[in-house]
Amino acid sequence: MLSDNLYPPIPDAVDSALLSTRPGLADGGPGAQRPLLFVEQHAVLMAVAVALLAALLSVVLAVRQPWLGLTLTMDPLASEPTVLRVASVAPASPAALAGIAPGDQVLAIGGAGGVLRPVSARDVMFSEAALHDYAQWETFFAAQRQLARWQSGVAMQWQMRVATGGQRIATLAPAPIRPVGSLPAAFWLVVLAGALAMVLPAWAVRATGMRAATACLLLSGLGWLVATVGASVISQPVRELAMEPELFAVLSMAKRGGSVLFMLGLVGLMMFYPTRIASWHAMVVATAVAVAWMVAAFAQWLPTPSMGRPLLLAVGMLVWLVLAVRQWQRSAGEARDRAALRWVGLSFLVGAVLFLSVDLVPWFKGRSELLPPAWTFVLCSLLFASVVLAVRRYRLFDYDVWSRHLLISLLTVITLVGLDLLLLNLLPLNNWQGLGISLAIGAGLYLPLRQWMWNRWFGRSQPNLRNATAVLLTIGMVPSSDRLALWRRLLVELFNTGRFEVMDGTDPPTPEAASHVVLLGDGAAMWLPETGDLPAVVLQRRDQGRRLFTSTDRRMAERLCVLIGQLIQSGEAYRRGVSEERERIADDLHDDLGATLLAVVHVASQPGGSPAVAAAARQALDEMRSAVRNMKARPAPVEEMVADWRSDTVSRLNGAGIEADWDAQVSRPEALVPPRTVHQLTRVLREAISNVMRHSGASRCAVHVNVGQGDIQLEVEDNGVGIDWNSDATRRGQGLANIERRVRRLGGMHRFMQGPMGGTLLMVRVPFEAFSSVPGDIVKDITK
Amino acid sequence: MFPSDTLATRRLAAASMGSMSTTLIVEDLPDIREWLGEVARAALPGTSVVAVGRCDEGVAVATRQPFDYALVDLGLPDGSGTTVIQTLRTHQPNTIVVVMTIHDDDDHLFPALQAGAFGYLLKDQPREIVIAQLRRITEGEPPLSSPVARRVLNYFIAGGPRQFGAERFDPDAVQLTARETEILQRVAKGFTLPEIATQIGLSRHTVADYVKQIYRKLNVSSRAEAALEAARRGLVRP
């Protein structure tokens, strides 16, 4: 028989914390939540205020620059990479009024009436990584100072090579103030990115209070906001041509210093999240190092500019990775921490790639960035947002699925970039040809790579319904006592879970859980509601604790619950139908056939009637009763069957004045005997006893019953005259033939012989397989 | 509440006063009805028989006229004989009711026993055997088969008496005593009543009294259960 102990017992009960709907703690640490402070409660409001102030500052700084109304670009198609070209001209702007058109090449710029100064992209475009030493830095600022002076004058002269060929000098009168409407979309994107980075950590603080991890996130957000203020104003095309070096320097420091703070916050996060692996002293030291380093960089004490922020950020990333690996080791067996770590780690890596591509390394020959800088800011902010969400444990259970998508995308990008670089270096191709071929190859690789990753990383853990179908269908057909074991087996195999708890009598953790599958504890556990007559259950330790339950798992479990409910319902309806039909037939037999047979008994018992007919009719009634009982019967335990045999046999023999000697050996009293076996054997025994009573003339009758592991043995022996096989009565009688027929039907054998008591000994032996409602191969499967 | 010597008392009273006992027979087949009348007269000498063929007639007679014995068939054309048994039990608690049936399965018998029957006889048995068994029942030895004993045990263990409140029914009246439970368990294991008497060292008569008590408790418990169920459904105000 099936029972729960087919599975190893599960010692500890479901963690009661899982059943509460409290949000996860930001630090992943234990302990109850303390009441939030006023500052924490209003953190979001304050962050919004700070972000608005920063945005206002950006706008004011941008608007106070003299306005030209054009966008300059470094021409990617030109043979000389420092060629400066007009990319676009705003309508009705000073540049448009001066007759400057997109496509014109800028040759030289000068003030009103003065000498023109040749300009190249080097004088206008600013790339920290492109500056190899402080001399280049000074040259750039000298050029900017000159150009800015002209730009703030009443009029300036631009010597252009027009697109159609030939040169001309345009006289341009810059507007003293820039109209807010002329600020490009890129500006607003960067401002928005900064605001997002500021507000999200505040949201985390609002939810879980100021903890080490949320404080670090807040530091990062603030740093990123400061960086975006600087970047939004000094980046092209907001800075159309030039800016006062003093202001430029301050904003550049804001941008560089802000990004260092951002990195510092992320390093801090890895010290304290998901588990605290460093003391706050480490964070203080890290901050001191970063600040000192940046002061040295700003004061130009370092040998080269690239030893300032670029090196510091590289070191920061390295430290971050080391901390992340340490966190990974510490979180073994903690599926929730690992899911969060995977997600944070991947977000960080993607962000780092983007950041490097735009800010630190000119990846491509001639091209300085992978994406427009504004978009890079937005993407970095979004990735930062995802880190905040992970710390906040928002939908933690779905991170594994998201991680998978992110990782595949990241690998694809890296492959593309790598191919692009390789092709550009090996083959005489220009940028666009190289990129095109890379994209073609990358697209061809993308799908197989994706599939491979999918199978490699997550393939095993995908629930496979195919193998479960047999069990699923069986659950509907077995009696309710066997269902739970099968349900358990199905779920444990499907989700490869380490723990299965029956939540009988436990209130659903949420109102929704009364009828739906819900994820508990950020996906550490999954609650399945009552379905059919199965109790609610909680699964834990997905993939033996390596992963969390995901939304996909939840949806599949939900479908399973509905399906099982329907299967159980239809199985019950079927069984009810069968049992109702049997009852109807049984009642018909009783009422109609029974009454008729009774009438026969009666007529034949009248004086002058035939006692033989009466006896036959009585026998028929007896058979009918037995058949009806069998028809209605459920499988009976061995002990009940044997008890009924004893009661019937002993009272009949005693009633006939025969001494009864009963002996029964039962090896498995609880085992269920199929109704058919009970019926046939009962008839055999009754027939045998009837023979003893009617024909043997015995004074004593011994009955031995032995129910063994694989068979049932019956022995009926009397001390009477024995069977005369040659008499007419014996040959005519149906009794012996009936015994033979019934025993054969059960696949058994019988033998009549002379017994030690001198009379007849009947030995019957039939095979006996305990009744089970579950098909044999599934039983074998379960007990394996 | 239930003097265990009710049956004997009534029989003695009937005999000493020289008055005739009365027997109600409810059976739809005319031949069998007549035959049951003969059987009753043979088993209960001097009894006067009132025989009806329908359930409603049985109920009507049972409310009108006192009976000492009743032989009731279960499968009647207009309903189940259980209704007649219930009526008799309500109006004349001392009537000894015996079910005359061709059904010996506990599904059919148990409701009749709950309704207040004191035993059952199979109608297709030879006349002499029926007479002998009827005599034994009326003399205070009701039969009890192992399936019925299991049903009674299950009823008292799993359902019945535990469900109703103590303020209206004396819980002791509907709870089986240890001795009664022991006898039921032995019957359920297939031992006959005489065997059990020997096993636990009691007289056959005492064991029979316990069995009668079990039948009564089954009836009381069932009626209490029915009353409570009716009250629960608002049919009767408690």
Describe the model:
The complex is a heterodimer of chains A (about 775) and B (about 240). With about 775 residues, chain A is an alpha+beta fold. Chain A has 24 helices and 17 strands. In chain A, the strands form four sheets. In chain A, strands 1, 2, 3, 4, 5 and 6 form a six-stranded antiparallel sheet that branches. In chain A, strand 14 and strand 15 (about 710-720) form a beta hairpin. In chain A, helix 7 packs antiparallel against helix 8 (about 210-235). Chain B is an alpha/beta fold and about 240 residues long. Chain B has helices at about 5-15, 30-45, 55-65, 80-90, 105-115, 125-140, 145-160, 180-190, 195-200, 205-230, and strands at about 20-25, 50, 70-75, 75, 80, 95-100, 120. In chain B, the strands form two sheets. A five-stranded parallel sheet of chain B has the order 2-1-3-6-7, with helices on both faces. In chain B, strands 4-5 form a two-stranded antiparallel sheet. In chain B, helix 2 (about 30-45) packs across helix 6 (about 125-140), helix 8 (about 180-190) packs across helix 10 and helix 9 (about 195-200) packs across helix 10. Chain B starts with 5 loop residues before the first helix and ends in a 6-residue tail after the last helix. The model of chain B is unreliable at about 1-5, about 5-20 and about 160-170 (pLDDT under 50). The interface of A and B includes residues 591, 594, 598, 628 and 645 of A.
